[in-house]
Structures are given as C-alpha cells and as structure tokens.
C-alpha cells in the first residue's frame, strides 16, 4: 500500500469529506510525528507502535568506491517499535 | 529538550486545528489512518508512505534460541516481524533540528 492508496481508502470511508481534506489529514498525522521526533520527543500509539529516536556516535566511515576515510558526524536516527497488538496480528492469520 | 510524548489525542488535536474538522471527526480519522495501515500489514502488504517511510514486513525462519536465565535451548518458531525504514526526508528533518 502506498500513500495515495491510504488516502483513497480513508476518503472512501468518509464520503462527507473532500479528497483534498483527507490528504491534509494524512499529511498532518505524518508531519506531526516527524515534528515530535525532531523536537526530541517520542510518539506512542497504543496498539500500533512507538516512534522514537536513537543516538548514533560519530564514526569514521569510508567511501566504498575510493576506500577513502570520511568522518561521519554523530546523529539521531528514527526508530519504530511495533506495538504488541500489531505484532500479534501479523502472526495470527497463518496459525 | 521538552520531551513530551505525542499520543493519539495530540494527533487528532493537530487534525482539528489544521483542517478545522470537529474533534470527534478528527479522532475518528486518525484512528482510520492507523487502522488502514494495520490492516494492510496484517494482509501481508508493505506500507510505503512517501516522505515519511516504509513499514516493511520480514519473514524470519525457525531458529534455536536460548532462555538467558536458564540457558535452556528453546526453538523460536518462524514469524513475521515489522521493521520501519525512515525516508531520507525524515532522517534529515530529525537532524536539522539538533
């Protein structure tokens, strides 16, 4: 499923809303999650999962083509952990 | 860092403020967005949200694990796990604020 298909199915369930509005709803949800993480916070959606960030130390990387050493700065990377309910659902059908 | 934890309530509040829908409608829409993602994943579909990231399913084979407390070997059955791969835009925005 891609973003436009997600918008389409939510729009279908809400005939009283314009397609444009549903697009804005979907954008607001994802943008809010990114904003919260960018501010150093976390996002907890029970039953779905939690988004957080993890710190990565600075390290010396290497240009794979030239083999040259390049410094990689310390950074934060987004991390998602699926909620228990979702994890169980993923494995439920084939049992 | 004001590390506030964002929840469903904050998401529906954002929808209410940004789009001007009622609080009830906003809450319901947030729930529907999450439900649609869950149901696609449950059906075995990956979910790719451009400029956000990809929720990717991976099938893991059976392997022998160990109970760390007792040291006893226990089989870990094949299972499906969910990983999230953030988009480059999300990675950049998280580090731009730093």
SSE blueprint:
The complex is a heterodimer of chains A (95) and B (98).
Chain A: H1 3-13, H2 19-38, E1 42-45, E2 49-56, E3 59-62, E4 69-72, E5 75-82, H3 84-92
Antiparallel strand pairs in A: 1-2, 2-5, 3-4
Chain B: E1 5-6, H1 8-19, H2 23-42, E2 47-49, E3 53-60, E4 63-66, E5 73-76, E6 79-86, H3 88-96
Helix pairs in contact in B: 1-2
Task: Describe the structure concisely.
The complex is a heterodimer of chains A (95) and B (98). Chain A is of the alpha+beta class and 95 residues long.
Textual characterization of the structure:
The complex is a heterodimer of chains A (95) and B (98). Chain A contains 3 helices and 5 strands. Chain A is an alpha+beta fold. In chain A, the strands form 2 sheets. Chain A has a 3-stranded antiparallel beta sheet. In chain A, a hairpin with a 3-residue loop joins β1 and β2. Chain A starts with a helix and ends with a helix. The mean pLDDT of chain A is 94. Chain B has 98 residues and is α+β, with helices and mostly antiparallel strands. The termini of chain B are close together. β1 of chain A pairs parallel with β1 of chain B.
Q: What is the end-to-end distance of chain A?
A: 24 Å
Reading side by side through the largest sheet of chain B, how are the strands ordered?
2-3-6
Number of strands of chain B: 6
Individual helix count of chain B = 3
Features:
heterodimer; A: 95 residues; alpha+beta; 3-stranded antiparallel β-sheet; two-stranded antiparallel sheet; 5 strands; 42% helix; B: alpha+beta; two-stranded antiparallel ribbon; 30% strand
């Amino acid at each position: 499923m891609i973003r436009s298909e997600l918008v389409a199915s939510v729009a279908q369930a809400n005939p009283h809303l314009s397609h444009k509005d549903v697009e804005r709803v979907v954008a607001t949800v994802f943008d809010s999650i990114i904003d919260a993480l960018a501010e150093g916070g976390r996002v907890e959606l029970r039953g779905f999962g939690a988004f957080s960030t993890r710190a990565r130390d600075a390290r010396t990387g290497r240009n794979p083509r030239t083999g040259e050493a390049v410094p990689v700065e310390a950074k934060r990377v987004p991390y998602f952990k699926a909620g228990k309910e979702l994890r169980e659902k993923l494995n439920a059908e084939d049992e | 860092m004001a590390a506030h934890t964002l929840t469903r309530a904050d998401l529906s509040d954002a929808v209410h403020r940004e789009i001007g829908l009622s609080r009830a409608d906003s809450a319901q829409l947030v729930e529907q967005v999450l439900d649609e993602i869950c149901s696609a994943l449950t059906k075995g579909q990956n979910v790719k949200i451009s400029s956000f990231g990809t929720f990717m399913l991976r099938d893991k084979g059976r392997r022998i694990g160990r109970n760390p407390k007792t040291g006893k070997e226990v089989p870990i059955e094949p299972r499906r796990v969910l990983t999230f791969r953030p988009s480059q835009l999300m990675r950049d925005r998280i580090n731009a604020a730093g």
